[in-house]
């Protein structure tokens, strides 16, 4: 954590100084905003948290509920989401209070006594160690709390406007030639809800309009924003229903603290998810497919019926439920919309999208693969940094088209995966091709539910894989996977990726070549690249950083030397890796790294992996490599150390020059 | 983290439900309190935090300052203190914002150009890996903030009463035979200070009295509490002075982010301590011994003089100070009082101590070994749990005599160590026996400054070492050193010791014997001990747990099986290790552990140590062992698995039976 560089910070360094629109932010929702987010679920809250790092942008988030979510809904947190929480500074805290999945148990009818279930398999949840972060279970409400805290403590100081309901919106269109679009082209109609804790006194039912430059619809499966732009969820007509209950109970079922898929001989099935705190657990009890029009009947299922059914499936074990924290009949189908914004396919490139939909508003699917909250968060993060960049004048509006293009594919993959997984889980044992088909699928596809299958195709912001062989462990289009290094200035073990936060910056990691790696070897290639980065007018760092801003304000440029930290002489490191910033022009010493030392230093941050060689772990070529990483931590490009022309070209097609016109705020 | 067992907790689980005196705690300091703590430095705040876990006890903490400490004072946090923070739930958070010491550099005059300094050594700070926690540097103010948060969120809901100054106290004495001591024998006089943020309006200068059962003097080096009980700091008459500055600066000194001891050819010396946030650092610039009466002259040293002196010592490097966050002339001698309570040596056993002094009030020493805040916290923790136990009727008053007996020895050791270390650091190179004497001492004594040399002698609460051979890695009288295990119920990797919090409970760890360790071996010895613990009237768990309280409310009893977790059948584990608690009688599944599995599961909590065998790491005999641990996490006793008589005897001499009379609250 870096702070004090603008002067001493006496209190919690997680509370960043208010800046821009965060200074004296009005309590009351203004009439004109840059971004209006509708809905404070996972998609909306992460978007607010990310935009809170862009204090040049006025962002408001409205929510129909009178206050925070208290209970219920999703609880599965993929390792990819925990990586994301790291970027928002709360991975450690939420891990400490969450349930951590280590194994998954499969229970089936006993072959000899099919009325009884027996454990048939116990695979590890993450046998390959796909992330240094764990797979967690914790209530959605707590995830939202942490994002809310982040948004409130970030420079733009965003807090949700509760008790405001979205009714509809209209996007202004340019009808005549030469006519200009209004500055705030989206007009949104809202209504104060009855139970709103309105600081301005009772205004229940009263309507108002707000004009916005952009709207993010994060208003869930029944999205009004989606409807207002004429998009539809399409897909299988049948829903699948589950009785969901979060309960405190006494049981003799031995795996009650393990994630279990349980199938009984009657075809009943339970997905058991232990929950945070050591006592609570969730059960999804299968209620089967809901025929069209059959919703009401299924929804009438009582908690007593759910508990009775669970007991039946668990035979010979019993479940004595003592307290029901939450229960619901969760009914959902596999549905998806074809595009996640308001621009028709045929108008892409000629019209700028103004309204985006995210999360459940664009895709719904079963809860069985534990995906809903996770994918929704990645949607929200994806659109939020892009809006920040466009609105602060860093990037061209074309960036906004990449949101739907990237995320719609991911949603389609998710739905395909989930359909296969749900079908397998609902199948009777005798219907499976192979008795271990379910377990095999779980193990084979482990990377998917962990959230790491996302692989963006080449686009404006994802380069080609031409130079992939220079860094095979950083696949272009996939998330940047951290690895251990040693920081030179203080000799501490670090996870390279954990230094990256959700600060909206692009990152350029420079991995030294082997010539510069020996203890006495020179570092000519790194030095030349370092000089180019600060001196060439073509360098993205020069071209796209405003002249009056800190050198590291738009690009976070790091170097990893291929030698032990004691053999790196800071005096010879190019200044781009030791940038000076803030009112005192202090040197930032946290961008220069070296090989992980063999000596262990107690960490508390998963750092007790002495001796790991990041160059070997991530397949860095002896020639070295430049790895460009997006603000949402996906690898955008891999280039050779002398690939300055390609590096310049990559950013030139996307970013707006800052050196002639000074930044907007 | 365990919660939800009294029903669903929707918000932050770190906020424990208010209980006892924490429900409707009065804002105004009452006239009668059980414990009055004077001073909210590290000693006082940890005492308040610990006592906040005893909601049967009315504890108040008064502080002369108008509010929280903002800046300055100590910053060195030993690994032992970070272990302590773990018990109070904030090790992870404070580590994330702190500077972490990995190495210490030694700089000396260059042999050929003595006007220039050169680096002569760079030893690791903790080469032996004495703890899984790191050695940190962070401002004392933040440590106090975290303890304050803990105290405010714990059941007794303690917050400091700011703006109240201690003036004096009197302890009532029994003069006539048969006369009873008043219930609140200590009368304390206080004054409202001028700048107090008093909720009751301006009362500056007005005095009041409070009566207390016990007083903890945590009021620092000039302690009025110490004076009021007639104790004196004695020791060398001369103070040593240092110019201390916390600054933001630009420098070409390459080790500016490393802890350094720097000696120049003129005899000047600097102790450089990098600080949290990546930019700030502290320098202690030696100002030499202060002759008696010379204080005023030394204190007149200006910040400009300190900076000039630092530049002189750092030659050929320069230091361009941009901002001074804090500076002070810190002047201190090696002083100690002979006893830490109000009972004269000759009255121990006949009078109960009523007033205790802690921290700087009883011992002062240089800042060079970074001990002040650390030792003070252990003082405060030591007395606080003891007062909690006595006041809640768990233990006899004799427990209180152990405070001074234990801590005075520790302070004496500290002062001896610090004197040696300061002398070495202040010595001119040519005066050293051996040119590497300083570095050698640093490496040789590493366990001391890390806080792990504390080794309590046998007493009422520290048993004999007769059975030490059964668990050589848990020395009786030293802190319980955690090691990795695998939790049986959920298969997750855990650090055994991290489950222990500052909840005031004694802990009984049962390490299985090798007979019960094979994959099919029986567990006769563990089963017999388990049965005795819940069934025998001699069992401390039976005798000293109130009949209407949860089985695990006074003793936290855990088992570690000597086999993989997949080979432990929970159905056969004795109920004392799976106790039922709370209104729903839910089973606690977090006390049953097994050998650490070979398979790594991502942790984020220093848990990536697959395959570590706790039995081998901690030298557990094939016959198994019982390890008894105090509420402040020191090993109290090691016993054989059939040592039930000794176990019963150990607690019988200390604790008060609870089964006839129900607990006090
Ligand atoms: C009742 C319920 C139960 C669920 N149970 C499970 C489960 O058991 N397991 C699982 O994995 N997933 C479950 N889900 C799905 C999971 O919660 C979602 O996948 C996830 O929350 C998607 O995030 P989101 O931000 O897209 O939408 P949501 O979390 O649905 O958030 C949408 C937000 O928008 C607000 N909103 C909606 N309309 C308006 C409006 N017109 N004006 C203003 N605000 C509006 C809503 O109040 C809500 O806060 C459940 C969802 C719901 C609603
Ligand atoms: C100015 C200063 C600078 C220091 N600098 C360093 C340093 O550079 N490095 C280092 O390692 N250590 C330093 N120390 C020492 C270190 O801070 C102590 O070792 C540590 O704080 C001891 O903790 P404590 O709780 O015993 O006492 P303290 O932290 O001193 O706390 C005592 C508290 O009691 C309060 N108090 C005092 N008298 C009264 C009264 N009559 N009524 C009510 N409240 C009262 C004080 O306001 C204070 O909050 C410094 C101490 C001071 C005071």
UniProtKB/TrEMBL annotation, chains A, B:
Pfam families xrefs: FAD_binding_3, Phe_hydrox_dim
Record flagged with keyword ATP-binding: no
Domain FAD-binding: 32-417
Required cofactor names: FAD
Top-level EC class: oxidoreductase
Highest taxon of the lineage: Bacteria
Residues in Phenol hydroxylase-like C-terminal dimerisation domain copies: 454-658
TM helices/strands, residue ranges: none
Gene Ontology MF annotations: FAD binding; phenol 2-monooxygenase activity
EC number of the protein: 1.14.13.7
Alphabetical list of InterPro entries matching this protein: FAD-bd, FAD/NAD-bd_sf, Phe_hydrox_C_dim_dom, PHOX_C_sf, RIFMO-like, Thioredoxin-like_sf
Keywords: FAD, Flavoprotein, Monooxygenase, Oxidoreductase
Family the entry assigns: Belongs to the PheA/TfdB FAD monooxygenase family.
Name of this protein: Phenol 2-monooxygenase
């Amino acid at each position: 954590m870096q702070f004090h560089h603008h002067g001493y910070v006496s209190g919690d360094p997680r509370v960043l100084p208010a800046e821009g629109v965060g200074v004296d932010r009005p309590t009351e929702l203004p009439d004109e905003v840059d971004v209006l987010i509708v809905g404070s679920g996972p998609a909306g809250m992460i978007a607010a948290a990310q935009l809170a790092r862009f204090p040049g942008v006025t962002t408001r988030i409205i929510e129909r509920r009178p206050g925070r979510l208290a209970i219920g809904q999703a609880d599965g947190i993929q390792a990819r989401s925990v990586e994301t929480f790291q970027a928002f500074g709360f991975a450690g805290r939420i891990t400490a209070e969450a349930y951590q999945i280590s194994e998954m148990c499969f229970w089936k009818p006993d072959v000899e006594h099919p009325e009884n279930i027996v454990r048939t398999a116990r695979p590890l949840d993450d046998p390959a160690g796909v992330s240094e972060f764990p797979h967690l279970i914790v209530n959605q409400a707590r995830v939202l709390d942490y994002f809310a805290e982040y948004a409130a403590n970030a420079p733009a100081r965003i807090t949700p406007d509760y008790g405001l309901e979205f009714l509809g919106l209209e996007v202004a269109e340019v009808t005549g030639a030469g006519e200009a679009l209004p500055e705030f082209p989206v007009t949104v109609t809202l209504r104060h809800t009855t139970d709103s804790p309105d600081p301005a006194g009772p205004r229940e039912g009263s309507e108002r309009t707000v004009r916005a430059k952009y709207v993010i619809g994060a208003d869930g499966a029944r999205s009004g924003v989606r409807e207002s732009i004429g998009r539809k969820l399409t897909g299988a007509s049948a829903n699948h229903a589950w009785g969901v209950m979060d309960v405190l109970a006494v049981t003799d079922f031995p795996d009650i603290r393990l994630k279990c898929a349980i199938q009984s001989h009657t075809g009943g099935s339970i997905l058991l998810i232990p929950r945070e705190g050591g006592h609570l657990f969730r059960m999804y009890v299968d209620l089967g497919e809901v025929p069209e029009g059959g919703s009401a009947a299924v929804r009438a299922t009582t908690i007593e019926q759910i508990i009775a059914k669970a007991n039946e499936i668990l035979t010979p074990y019993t479940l004595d439920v003592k307290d029901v924290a939450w229960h619901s009949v969760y009914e959902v189908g596999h549905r998806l919309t074809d595009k996640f914004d308001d621009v028709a396919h045929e108008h892409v490139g000629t019209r700028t999208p103004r309204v985006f939909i995210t999360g459940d508003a664009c895709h719904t699917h079963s809860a069985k693969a534990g995906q809903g909250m996770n994918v929704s968060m990645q949607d929200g993060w994806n659109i939020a940094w892009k809006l920040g960049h466009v609105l602060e004048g860093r990037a061209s509006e074309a960036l906004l088209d990449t949101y739907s293009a990237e995320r719609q594919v991911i949603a389609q993959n998710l739905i395909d995966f989930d359909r296969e997984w749900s079908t397998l889980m609902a199948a009777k044992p005798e219907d499976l091709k192979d008795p271990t088909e379910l377990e095999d699928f779980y193990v084979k596809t482990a990377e998917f539910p962990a959230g790491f299958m996302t692989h963006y195709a080449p686009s404006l912001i994802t380069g080609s894989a031409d130079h992939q062989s220079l860094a095979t462990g950083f696949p272009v289009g996939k998330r940047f996977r951290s690895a251990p290094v040693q920081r030179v200035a203080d000799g501490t073990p670090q996870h390279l990726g954990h230094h990256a936060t959700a600060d909206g910056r692009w990152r350029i990691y420079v991995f030294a070549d082997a010539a510069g790696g020996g203890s006495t070897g020179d570092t000519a290639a790194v030095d030349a690249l370092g000089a180019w980065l600060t001196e060439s007018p073509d360098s993205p760092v020069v071209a796209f950083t405003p002249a009056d801003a800190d050198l590291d304000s738009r690009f976070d440029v790091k170097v990893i030397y291929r030698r032990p930290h004691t053999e790196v002489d800071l005096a010879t490191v190019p200044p781009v890796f030791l940038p000076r910033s803030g009112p005192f022009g202090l040197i930032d010493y946290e961008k220069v790294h070296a090989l992980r030392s063999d000596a262990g230093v107690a960490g508390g941050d998963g750092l007790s992996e002495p001796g790991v060689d990041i160059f070997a772990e991530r397949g860095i070529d002896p020639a070295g490599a430049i790895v460009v990483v997006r603000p949402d931590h996906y690898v955008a490009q891999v280039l050779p150390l002398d690939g300055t022309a390609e590096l310049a070209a990559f950013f030139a097609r996307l970013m707006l020059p800052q050196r002639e016109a000074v930044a907007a705020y």
